[in-house]
Amino acid sequence: MVRWTKAVVAVAAAALLAACGTDPATTPASAGDTGHGDKNVATGGTLFATADTETAKLKADVGPGVFPRTVTQAMGQTRIEKKPERVIVLDSGELDDVLALGVTPVGMATTAGQQGVPSYLADRVQNIATVGPTNTLDLEKIASLKPDLILGSKLRVNDLYPQLSAIAPTVFSIRPGFPWKENFLLVGAALGAEEQATKLLNDYQTKANQVKAKLTGAPTISLVRFMSGNIRLYGKKSFIGVILADVGLPRPANQNVDELAVEISKENIDQSAGDWIFYSSYGSAVSPDQKAVTEGPIWRNMSAVKGGHAIAVDDEVWFLGLGPIGAMRVLDDLGNFLG
């Protein structure tokens, strides 16, 4: 490992300042991608659609639990000499992943728009050091925690990989979101916990099958998220879209697309129709836009709403969970709502 000196800190800090900037997303559907991420893997990027299949190729060169190991990851290959004990995570997906594997990180990044971390994980990370928001990481703080593994993604912090990998072995996925299962297996590979990760995903699919078995028919599921100034209808290439597919739940035609989301205006909220509508607001319990729409005549006259099948859900679980703990919570909700 390269020794982290004051000179390196200064160079890295300068690189961080240069990398920070405006959101690279060209459409609101890419909100959340940071100024030093890889635009090619963002929504609409040339490498977005294949992120799951490409991530599935990333793995270790030795069997479960064996160290040293070399992990092939999104930025190349990373040598990990011994089982990591001081892990830093740079997004909520990696946080969910390591906690699911029984690893409490020594440091974590917070995510813009959240109050620190997703609320469903908050009680597990009360005493964990924070290393800044994902888009303005404190590299000196990261170094001071003396990590032996850093977990992140190209989407969030691609440009900072040289600085991060100079601090500790660093393993990047391609992007969070719809490749959440492949990302979890990659985290398992970095920790030498492949068997545990595989078992947890098998447990997840067993539970998804149980939810499916209790369904009456195959109701279409509409996913609505109120953003700042627009409304997203989530597609198949999303965390929640993958979960619905695993349960075998069909989608309305305009959401049955290989995209993260499509966008509609408040005036076109009737385009969110489905047998069931699950909705939330990004960044707050109830946004002004959500309140205006759900109290309006178009929403109130939709069949799902009149039938009691429009349900407000926890945004931090359904849309920001990005890992197996969050996914299991979504399955619990689906079982309760639809069973």
Automatic annotation (TrEMBL):
Family note: Belongs to the bacterial solute-binding protein 8 family.
PROSITE patterns, A to Z: FE_B12_PBP, PROKAR_LIPOPROTEIN
Superkingdom in the source lineage: Bacteria
Entries under Pfam families matching the protein: Peripla_BP_2
InterPro entries associated with the record: ABC_transptr_periplasmic_BD, Bact_iron-sidero_bind
Keywords: Signal, Transport
Chain ranges of the Fe/B12 periplasmic-binding domain: 86-339
GO biological process: iron coordination entity transport
GO terms under cellular component: outer membrane-bounded periplasmic space
Family matches, as PANTHER family: IRON III DICITRATE-BINDING PERIPLASMIC PROTEIN, IRON(III) DICITRATE-BINDING PERIPLASMIC PROTEIN
Compartment(s): Cell envelope
Endpoints of the signal sequence: 1-25
Entry protein name: ABC transporter substrate-binding protein
